[in-house]
């Protein structure tokens, strides 16, 4: 009998009851704007910032309207100007080059390795073109962060980390987001904590964070923050930093605070599901599992594998066969951007030279979400379906 999976790949868990109650209380108060607080009240946003900074071990944290906003604010805080080049990953999602383009800067794409991390050789070759690297930990794959930072420090490159897929992850015990000068997170529905839209910026650099805070639309109310630099730092930047509003509100913060407390347990739940699927995929002919390095703690909220050199027709066949059995695989290699997938050459506002070695890898990347609403049995079934369909197509191609 052919097994079919009937679960929903985009169904999140509900917001914790505690978060719902806190959100209702915010609505009853009528004080939704982050700086609208009663006497003696810190407010949900300031508390969330303090709690997320403490969770990571960061000095400063700013909650903002989205992950994309956080990246744009980081670029502006670092002084990136229109026309400047900014290095970034060829394998990432559209908001990353978009954030660079939004400040008038020009993305320069760096290749991807078979481990789905930034290619450090290609980075070294392109390092002299820019002062800033927007490093996207795409799909939670962290490169050797010590090697990357050594390279960037030696070449005078400042690193902004895009941690949209690495909230809860670390490299050698140091959280992602604390390696570079600034770390950016998203709390959008498909990430690790869910407020519909939202994001964070973290840093240990007081001046960058003071600039980002003014940028986000703090006016001169920055003393209402609990995870911001001291007022004298703001004195140095407040006349020179434009307001580009992108604040978070109390409603979203109320929904997020209990999720920050639950984050480590959620990450463990993701990894149990991920490892179940990974184990089921290992040993499939023609399918390359991405081995996760021992040095890093990852969050398995999605899984990738490679069908190297299979060619478009056979990959599309695998996707279609899995889809028929209820399993939604996404392919990053398509010529046309589809849903959330796109390639660096889809972003035509940012012309790029072809990267044949990376193109070969991008053309082979299969991607699947792992929502926490799936059970471990669901994950085992999904892996069986993928394994069977990959085998079937492989058999057609290679015989045997
Ligand atoms: C989602 C995402 C972002 C942007 O987050 P938003 O909150 O949607 O703006 C940035 N980078 C990557 C890799 C993402 O997946």
Brief characterization of the structure:
With 400 residues, this protein is of the alpha/beta class.
What do these coordinates show?
- It is a single chain.
- The chain has 400 residues and is α/β, with parallel strands linked by helices.
- It folds into two domains: 17-261, 3-Layer(aba) Sandwich (Aspartate Aminotransferase, domain 2), CATH 3.40.640; 263-398, Aspartate Aminotransferase, domain 1.
- Helices cover 38% and strands 14% of the residues.
- It contains 13 helices and 14 strands.
- It has helices at residues 17-29, 44-56, 67-77, 95-102, 120-126, 145-154, 206-216, 231-237, 250-261, 263-281, 312-324, 356-362, 376-398; strands at residues 60-64, 85-89, 106-110, 132-136, 158-162, 170-171, 174-175, 182-186, 199-203, 288-289, 296-297, 302-306, 330-331, 365-369.
- The strands form three sheets. The protein has a seven-stranded mixed sheet, with helices on both faces. Strands 10-12-14-13 form a four-stranded antiparallel sheet, covered by helices on one side.
- Helix 2 runs parallel beside helix 9 and helix 10 (263-281) runs parallel beside helix 13.
- The longest helix is centred in the last third of the chain and has 23 residues, at 376-398.
- The mean pLDDT is 96.
- The structure holds pyridoxal-5'-phosphate.
- Pyridoxal-5'-phosphate binds next to helix 3 and helix 4.
């Amino acid at each position: 009998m052919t097994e079919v999976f009937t679960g929903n790949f985009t169904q999140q868990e509900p917001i914790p009851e505690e978060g719902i109650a806190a959100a209702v209380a915010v609505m009853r108060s009528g004080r939704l704007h982050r700086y609208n607080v009663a006497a003696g009240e810190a407010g949900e946003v300031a508390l969330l910032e303090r709690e997320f900074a403490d969770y990571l071990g960061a000095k400063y944290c700013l909650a903002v309207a989205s992950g994309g906003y956080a990246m744009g604010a980081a670029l502006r805080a670092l002084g990136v100007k229109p026309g400047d080049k900014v290095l970034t990953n060829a394998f990432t999602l559209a908001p990353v080059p978009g954030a660079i383009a939004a400040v008038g800067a020009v993305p320069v794409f760096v290749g991807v390795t078979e481990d789905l991390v930034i290619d450090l050789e290609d980075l070294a070759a392109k390092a002299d073109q820019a002062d800033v690297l927007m490093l996207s930990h795409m799909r939670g794959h962290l490169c050797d962060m010590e090697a990357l930072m050594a390279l960037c420090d030696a070449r005078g490159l400042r690193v902004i980390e895009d941690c949209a897929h690495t909230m809860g992850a670390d490299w050698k015990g140091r959280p992602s987001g604390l390696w570079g000068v600034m770390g950016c997170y998203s709390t959008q529905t498909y990430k690790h904590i869910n407020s519909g839209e939202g994001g964070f910026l973290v840093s240990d650099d007081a001046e960058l964070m003071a600039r980002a805070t003014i940028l986000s639309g703090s006016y001169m109310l920055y003393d209402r923050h609990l995870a911001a630099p001291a007022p004298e730092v703001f004195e140095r930047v407040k006349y020179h930093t434009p307001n580009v509003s992108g604040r978070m509100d109390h409603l979203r913060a109320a929904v997020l605070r209990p999720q920050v407390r639950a984050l480590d347990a959620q990450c463990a739940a993701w990894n149990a599901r991920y490892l179940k699927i990974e184990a089921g995929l290992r040993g499939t002919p023609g399918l390359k599992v991405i081995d996760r390095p021992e040095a890093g703690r990852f969050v398995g909220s999605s899984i990738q594998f490679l069908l190297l050199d299979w060619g478009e027709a056979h990959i599309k066949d695998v996707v279609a066969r899995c889809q028929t059995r209820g399993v939604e695989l996404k392919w990053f290699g398509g010529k046309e951007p589809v849903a959330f997938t796109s390639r660096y050459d889809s972003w035509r506002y940012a012309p790029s030279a072809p990267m044949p070695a990376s193109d070969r890898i991008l053309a082979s990347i299969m991607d699947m979400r792992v929502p926490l609403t799936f059970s471990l049995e669901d994950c085992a079934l999904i892996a069986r379906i993928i394994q069977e369909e990959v085998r079937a197509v492989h058999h057609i191609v290679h015989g045997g």
